[in-house]
Amino acid sequence: MSSIQVLKPHAKDLGGGFVVRRLLPSGQRQAVGPFIFFDHFGPVIVRPSDNHDVRPHPHIGLATLTYLFEGVILHRDNLGYVQRIEPGAINWMTAGRGIVHSERRPPEEKDVTYTNHGLQLWLALPEDQQEVPAIFAHTPANAIPELSQGAAKVRVLVGEAFGAKSPVATLSPTLYLDVDLPPNSQWTVPMLAQEQAIYAVQGDLLHAGEPWEAHSMVLHTEALSVTSGPKGTRFVVLGGAPLGRRFIWWNFVSTSKERIEQAGADWEAGTATAGMAQVPGETERIPLPAR
Fold first, then answer.
1. What is the mean pLDDT of residues 77-99?
2. pTM for the full predicted model
3. Which one of 3.30.530.20, 1.50.10.10, 3.30.1300.10, 2.60.120.10 gives the CATH number of domain 4-240?
4. 3-state secondary structure the chain
5. Are 152 and 180 in contact (CB under 8 A)?
6. 59 labeled binding residue
7. Does the annotation place 52 within a ligand binding site?
8. By the 8 A CB rule, do 76 and 91 touch?
9. Which end of the chain has fewer surrounding CB within 10 Å, N or C?
10. Contact 181/228 with Cβ under 8 angstroms?
11. What is the predicted pLDDT for the residue at 282?
12. Which conformational region is residue 217 in: left (phi greater than 0), alpha (psi within -120 to 50 degrees), or beta?
């Protein structure tokens, strides 16, 4: 039997007036497949006087996935990677037993006004792989498969769909598609994952003639027919195999509360052997928040 669940965003201020729309986790649902965190930021104009930098901070037990529609972010981590993140690329960071990274405006953009717009997602790791060594992997935009499927243009960001397979490696079955639907067009979103959701990034999206509330996430259990609005619609499809409940506190995810407590202590101590060493070239860090 078909069922639909609608998750509404809540605004979250990340500091400096930088507000995002957060869909996961929510009071209604913690995760969709392995996805346990979903932030949509922008479009936001970044002026030379703005400071949206995210100072060095740690993660454990998860993977982060950054995808831009517009703009640029400079990633640095304590594995030594320095990567300029640009639209269309996939930046996947497996924290595993511990990693520290920063996200900043590139120095060459310090006097430039530009627009930042993108999605930042976290994925839980399988229980037996929560303590894997940290990894950072950048997949450029031109390596992502893109195809036409009916009226839609589809980029297969992660996973497999319509005979195309993303080169992005994952630790559990995962689906992530970027779909562009021209104005007033109909498209049927097939079920491609055990758990699956649709999120409209830009433009109106209608189902059965009724528009969905802007920036809502719609979970569905069978193929779903959607129609774009008069300006067209860009949306993502995400999902995968569920991995069970997780404890989430600050930037830490685990099946164990004790492991999260230990990660906090390691961050305060700057324990290099726990993956909490400083990022090369950085002098700042975000302190552990009070619980």
1. 98
2. 0.96
3. 2.60.120.10
4. CCCEEEECCEEEECCCCCEEEEEECCCCCCCECCEEEEEEEEEEEECCCCCCCEEEEEEECEEEEEEEEECCEEEEECCCCEEEECCCCEEEEECCCCEEEEEECCHHHCCCCEEEEEEEEEEECCHHHCCCCCEEEEECHHHCCEEEECCEEEEEEECEECCEECCCCCCCCEEEEEEEECCCCEEEECCCCCEEEEEEEECCEEECCEECCCCCEEEECCCEEEEECCCCEEEEEEEECCCCCCEEECCEEECCHHHHHHHHHHHHHCCHHHCCCCCCCCCCCCCCCCC
5. yes
6. yes
7. no
8. no
9. N
10. yes
11. 96
12. beta
Tokens, residue 38: 């979903």
Residue 237's Cβ-count burial label (10 Å; 0-12, 13-18, 19+) is buried
- Residue type for position 187: W
Q: Kindly provide the b/e burial profile for residues 125-138, where b requires at least 16 CB atoms within 10 angstroms of the residue's own CB.
A: beeeebebebbbeb
Name residue 274's amino acid.
Answer: A
Determine if residue 103 is labeled as part of a ligand binding site.
yes
Q: What span, in angstroms and rounded, lies between the C-alpha atoms of 160 and 183?
A: 26
Beta-carbon-side half-sphere exposure of residue 179 (alpha carbons within 13 Å): 31
User: Is 57 within any annotated ligand binding site?
Assistant: yes
Give me the percent of the chain exceeding a pLDDT of 70: 98
Mean predicted lDDT score pLDDT of the chain = 96
Q: pLDDT band for position 83 (50/70/90)?
A: very high
Residue 240 has pLDDT above 50, yes or no: yes
